Amino acid sequence: MARDTLEVAFVVPRSGPAAIVGPSCEACGLLAVDEVNAGGGMLGREVRLRVVDGGRAPRAVAGEIDGLLSAGAVEAVTGWHISAVRQQVAPIVSGRAPYVYSPLYEGGERTPGVYLAGETPDRQLLPALRWMAGELGVRTWCVVGDDYVWPLASAAVARHYARRRTDIRILDEVFVPLGTLDFAAAVHRVERSGADGVLMLLVGSDAVRFNRAFAAAGLDSACVRLSPLMEENMVFATGAAATHDLYAASGYFEALPTSSGLDFSRRYAARFGVQAPVPGSLGESCYEGVTLLARMAERAGSLGSDELAAAAETLAYDSPRGSVRMAGNHLLQSVYLARADGLGLDVVAQLTP
């Protein structure tokens, strides 16, 4: 490996249900690399991304990362991929290279050398449930999620939260395999529950198919939907006819009316053109992952685990998500609630942790 370049394994979905956001992830990662390199690179070296398909089976992804690290082909790992992949990759990477996991996730990751750039339920999901109860009167919920760690753990957090409140109740929970094609049974469970809202913990095309089935059954006129993992490309794929009363909570939306968010959209459009995939929250998280890695390395002066951990302790900077800061191994950020309006998402509130 040439020492004037720094290769980063960039784990993003090119297959599976999450592949719908893959192009946005890759574009946002490339924009971050362009900007890092324009500023002198990382540790004085040109950064290059080596794309690894994170949509495959978790063990296969971890095996490829292990091989790249063993061969000295990469020196860091980042990207958007589901928590089941992270749980396999984290122990492989720990002690060998820094790993910046960019997506929202269920919380609780403490593997040494792993840094989390995304939202956690205490700052995203739970405040959204509280807002929906207080502002819209949505107090009863049916959970529909994919059957893996993030939806299961997030549903458990929501369930525990509801038990401590008098204004929120979880009436039913339905979990389906990743890549489910037919959501008729899940939609029937929602209807039978009588819930005011559906807490959607579905990934990519699974969420799109559920939205269409939900609207086709006519439930969108009587029941709202809330998702921590709904972004503009998924809304577009769902179609305007199936997005009525669909809400999303995230640290970033393409329509976020802040100076930093608007400036990011301008730079993205200048780099990739108006026909590029929308830089939604999931794609933009990849920009955050690369940027956070570069910021920590710049401050630490190396990619050493001890140096990076010390550098991360008080790190703060301005990002497309606004002012962000590290607390432990997590990047803290403002979180917003948006409502679907046809094929877009309009921000309606800033959530309080």
From TrEMBL:
It comes from the Bacteria. Keywords: Signal. Belongs to the leucine-binding protein family. It comes from Pseudonocardia xinjiangensis. InterPro entries: Leu-bd, Peripla_BP_I. The keyword Hydrolase does not apply. This is Substrate-binding domain-containing protein. Residues 6-341 form the Leucine-binding protein domain. It holds the Pfam family Peripla_BP_6.
